[in-house]
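Entry 14. Ran structure prediction on the chain below.
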Amino acid sequence: MIYADICRIEHPVETPVAGGGREIQWQEFMVLDCRIEALRSFQAAVERQTAGGIASMPPVRLHFGYFAGGLAITEAMRAVNLETQEVMNILSPPVDLSGMRVELTLSAAIGKPS
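Output, structure tokens:
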């Protein structure tokens, strides 16, 4: 399969800071060719309350070729579209919907990392 998008999968790394707090920085886990599918079955984008008000978080699916490393992606990670720099919070681990080990699919939402 040919995929039109490129995403960087990142995982959080906590670093202690002065005063006893922690800072979260994102490190690259892998870069992969994928297809980002906007889910249009929802009447409106999912909304989430933030400190600044309500933010829209449109749901998407990421499709990418099956490989063992892809199964290591977790909900704690995020994806970044390298063309648009949109951050996508991963909502579910990748699944092989066909069961044929051809393609993995995961659910995500476009928005700021949680």
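The two ends are 32 Å apart (CA to CA). Will compare against last week's run tomorrow.
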